[in-house]
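User: Some background: our group keeps a shared notebook of sequences we're curious about, and every so often someone picks one and asks for a predicted structure to add to the entry. Today it's my turn. The entry only has the sequence so far, pasted here. Could you supply the structure so I can complete it?
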Amino acid sequence: MHVVVVESPSKAKTINKYLGVQYTVLASYGHVRDLPSKDGSVLPEQDFLMNYETDPKSAKQLRDIANALKGADTLYLATDPDREGEAISWHVLEALNDKKAVKGKRVQRVVFNEITKIAVLAAMEHPRDIDMALVNAQQARRALDYLVGFTLSPILWRKLPGARSAGRVQSVALRIVCEREIEIEAFVPREYWSIEVDFTTMSGGKFTARLTHADGRKLDKFDLGDGATANAIAERLGKGGFRISEVQTKPAKRHPYPPFTTSTLQQEASRKLGFGAKRTMEVAQRLYEGVDLGGETQGLISYMRTDGVQMADEAIAGARDVVASEFGRDYVPAAPRQYKTKQKNAQEAHEAIRPTDFKRTPDSVARYLDDQQRRLYELIWKRALASQMESADLERTTIDVIDDAGAFTLRASGSVVIFPGFLKLYEESFDDKTDDEDAARLPKVAANETVARELVRPEQHFTEPPPRYSEASLVKRLEELGIGRPSTYASIISVLQDRDYVTLEKNRFIPQDKGRLVTAFLIEFFEHYFAYDFTANLEERLDDVSGGQIDWKSVLRDFWVPFSMLQGLNPAPRDEVVSTKEAVKILDEVIGQRSIVIDRIDAALGPHFFPDKGDGVDPRVCPACAEGRLGIKLGRNGAFIGCSRYPECKYTRPLAIGDATDGAAALTADGPKVLGDDPATGLQITLRTGPYGPYVQLGEQTEDKKKKPKRSSLPKATPADAVTLDMAVGLLALPRLVGQHPETRKDIVAGLGRFGPYVKHDTLYASLDKDESPLDVGLNRAMELIARKEARGGARKQGGEVLRLMGPHPADGKPVEILKGKYGSYLRHGKTNATLPPETDIAGVTMEQSIDALVARGGKKAPKVKAKKAPVKKTAAKKKTAAKKKAAAPQAKAAVAKKRVAAGAA
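Assistant: Of course. Here's the predicted structure to add to the notebook entry:
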């Protein structure tokens, strides 16, 4: 018997079918050990000793693996084929060694790039030992992240209240977003004009040409810098005749793109499918681990965390066969296409992301997939197949048109697809640019042919700032800079959003003030360690560790010694290895008091929060007292803008650009503004301003600090000077009853929450538009918002329509149900859902099948029931003996009692 360990239960279920009864395949459920989130998990002063702890959630999995090994000969560690997968295998082995569960067993490591029967069986025939170079590279990365986080985070908490923490790579990504925002803010638009003319040929063809030369001089972009100049030339163009001066036709080719890497998949899925990086990887993981294709579970794509662009020879051959059968031999290139990665330090040589079998077309497997899986699989299949198709043949044409006087030249460019090649199947999309190779199609013309002028169009333009980063362009930028690796991109972006350092609006990242403060702090004091080239070089050193070229602890030592001493700012750095506690103490002293930190951040971010309006007025002058100077301040709840004359002047406003809240903040110059008395309680209602903007308050703070007076923020669209007593009374009374839902008869209420105004029905919340108020929203409008939210899947927690109640789960008695969801029917037990194949007969599903499907998604197993032994039939003789014993029992008890009495008397 043999035991095989993989990460996930769905992967275990698939592989178990391939290996047969001699193998027991179990899941570790990912990492089983990690560094605990406390000081002392990494000890630099003890040669970077790492104190791992077994995750309590993994205890059961490890116990199951240990029990299975009792009767086994070999342990196969079959986790994912990358550094993290190698590390998981090592951690599983270390945890089992602690249990003495592998003593006398053979331990082997197996890797496969795809979960298919052929690939898995081939991997089992070629096992190897755990690659400690890969493990140590992962350990080094984990230690670096820990050391940076546990050293910088306490400093941040002390110097910048409200800041969450600083990550080694996430902070660099945040810097990229913040520096792009600075570029946008500093951008000054510049005006320029262009002139286009519509022409008609003698044969009736039409085309548009742009002015390129005027009066014998080639025009640069800004030569037509104003409307007067452009209109004067347009007037001249409207008077003369025109002819074709030259026609240039050149053949051109467009070659297919390589198959997806992790980075390019995330970028293209973002642009074409609207998937975030995290969602892309989650869906790809399910496609990789396996899908039930009508009774047979198969992995549909190869491993999805990769830098490689190459495909295996057999995959290339399969792709070429499908191209020939689907499109014809003309679309198959003479020789297979081979691609090489352009990335300098690509991770371990993996294949590109591709289908495991090109014959499984998107249409043939669509009925087994949910909508997201189907769309992503189709994208991967098309891209990989197109990579082995013939190039597209184009004919690029340029037409030059001159006027009769020879004063003006206009040019039209376009292309004609002669043979589509790979373009028949797949075309790349772009994030921030258009594909200029697909210009307009031009009519057939000849030199010296006369053309008729139609419309002359002068157009005004302004230069635009660089665009904010989308998920796709941020991943691309990280890859270009060599920051992070395929497995880290999604988590980097998630952390930035989870910490509220950035927000994603209209698919673009906008840095929040909290994120800008953290970035300013890190650049001011730790610029060297969060520089792009330093982070990229550190990634290269980790790659060298994985290649066995350098020792992993030397990488840690080279980083930690200067970082912990803050070399460059520390006047007396030491060349020694100190503990994390000592490093925090050193950094705290070197950086100095909070006031020093704020002064430097205030100077760095001043141009952002106090932009010059060009009116000669100092943007930092306090609008309340006209004497103080505005600056960034820190309070218990984070940063805000305040007056330098505090406490004489109590002007404050949220950390925002310019005068966005000056009207509200000016209230604090003379203290709170009294609106009147509350009709119900008689308490005074005042309008005030705090670090987070204006609010209304009922009554005053009493001596009991635990009892706060009732308060309510203002809706974002409500200016402070528009607040009346009636409005304040209404705000303080929120949430208010809007009415009852006619179908459920449950209350619908309106309120003002952390994320703005809302309406609530049962457990479903729906946001109001920015210009709507929770004070006057009506029942019809509330029901419209609730219905819209439900249509978008807002009632996901409640689940869809129940199609069938299977009965109580034998493990806990909770119901097992089949429901109708957005993407088809699915099983539900507690918080576990399992999708059912589209062709499933709902009436024919058994409880046993339901439990198996739920277990595959991480649900509970049915308890084992011990079989009861059948009662033994008593013979006549045995019955007689039993009757005698029963009759003798009272006499025996009496005899024992007499003996005890006699013994006591003695």
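Suggested note for the entry: The chain is about 35% helix and 20% strand. Residues 2-130 form a domain with the Rossmann fold fold (CATH 3.40.50.140).
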